Amino acid sequence: MDARPFAEPQKAFEKLRAEIARLGLNRKRPGQVLWEAGMFAFLLAASIVLMLSAHSALAVAAGAAGVLLGTVGLATNAHTSAHGATSDKPWLNALLTWLGFSVVSSISTTYWRHKHNVLHHQHPNEDLVDPDHEFTPHFALAEPQEERLSFLARKLRPLQAFLFPLATGFLIPNMASIGVVHTFKVLGKSKFKDSKAVIDLAGLALSVLAWWVVPLFFASPLRVLLLNTVRLIAGSYIFFAIFAPAHLPHEASFFPKGGLPKDWFSRQLATTLNFRAFPVARVFLSGLSYQIEHHLFPGVPHHQLPRIAPLVRKACEEAGIPYRELSWHGAVWKCVLVGYRPKRLANLI
Description:
Strand order of the largest sheet: 1-2
Shape: globular
Number of strands: 2
Number of helices: 15
Number of domains: 1
Mean pLDDT: 95
Distance between the termini: 12 Å
């Protein structure tokens, strides 16, 4: 897209923010988020029992589908809490984030907040800063990243379009391992006095216990392995399909380090896309199909994002800013194509 600065973007953003506050669309309603979390937790627990105890392939498959839906629902629900958008009470946000990421998803909460809230949201699609657009030294999804490929990745570069989709299946295990290392580094720097990091590691240990040890008392090792393969490998593809469409397609501009638009409105609109999800899927996405609105207002509860979307679209029209929305399947396919044809740097004129 044309990435030149937009006309009076800050004025448009301030007007939009004031309108959202006037309508009360930034108010937090923890009851709804808690109800959704409870529904996802019940689905997950029932599906685990079904998957571990079922005797028919069809029942096992139904259990696997429920495990995926339950874990994804809890993770996207926790994503809202990680931004402090569930409640005005920090402890409730922290608890739901810890449960959804550290315990259920096996992803360090400490790492997620640093990777997602700090680096990604503040520096979307910025080379060498945004980890969500950085797959080196294994893959290059933007032209400047080509030079940072490993020796083996350079040799396999002609096969990247085929290898990248395969490697996507290890997204969650990769984040889980990096997260553990990151959390221990945080503890080391604080001389093991960071209580949040300690609680985070306790949650990760509880996750191993809950997913790998306890099920062995009720099912065979092979069935437990199948359970975790479903949630980690199949879950990785679902995570990719949820988070990648907002920033990986060519329509989402990629900027050099230090080259992002200076104002918040232009920065988020230049690098972020929405995608259209069908109604049932939106229940489990917790507002993540409205990535433009979420990136502009990360502290707004996810159930309010569909209501502020028309306001954001109107503000974009008034300011002459493109508001981009793709079909979900089209956006996912475009993410895959980036492996075939990496993105160019945006020209900020």
